[in-house]
Automatic annotation (TrEMBL):
This is Thioredoxin domain-containing protein. It holds the Pfam family Thioredoxin. Coiled coil: none annotated. It comes from the Bacteria. Residues 11-94 form the Thioredoxin domain. InterPro entries: Thioredoxin-like_sf (IPR036249), Thioredoxin_domain (IPR013766).
Length: 105
């Protein structure tokens, strides 16, 4: 598995119109379930996300005050616009991604 550098993540946050990060932790079963649900919702919306193991991104955890894993961070034009920690259902995640996709803020 390729690990993206913190610098590249920060560059993507800055440069991309929309950027999604899914943060997980090793041996986290809740993270596995959350990613399965996110994968279904993202594929339905034809969206992609950056998958990162939070154990390797202390700077990002501090900078964005990531509280737990799993974490879904949605960025627009360099700004964190939404955080999701409770991956309630595929339907819920689909709604979150739909709002993120069409919201022009």
């Amino acid at each position: 598995m390729e690990i993206i550098s913190t610098e590249d993540i920060l560059k993507n946050i800055r440069d991309k119109e929309r950027y999604i990060i899914f943060g997980y932790a090793t041996m986290c079963k809740t993270c596995d379930i959350a990613e399965t649900m996110l994968s279904v919702a993202a594929s339905t919306r034809q969206m992609s996300y950056e998958r990162i193991n939070l154990n390797f991104y202390k700077t990002l955890i501090e900078d964005y005050e990531i509280r737990s894993a799993p974490a879904l961070l949605l960025f627009k034009k360099g700004e964190l616009v939404k955080e999701v920690y409770a991956f309630q259902s595929v339907t819920y995640l689909n709604e979150v991604l739909a709002d993120f996709q069409i919201d022009e803020h």
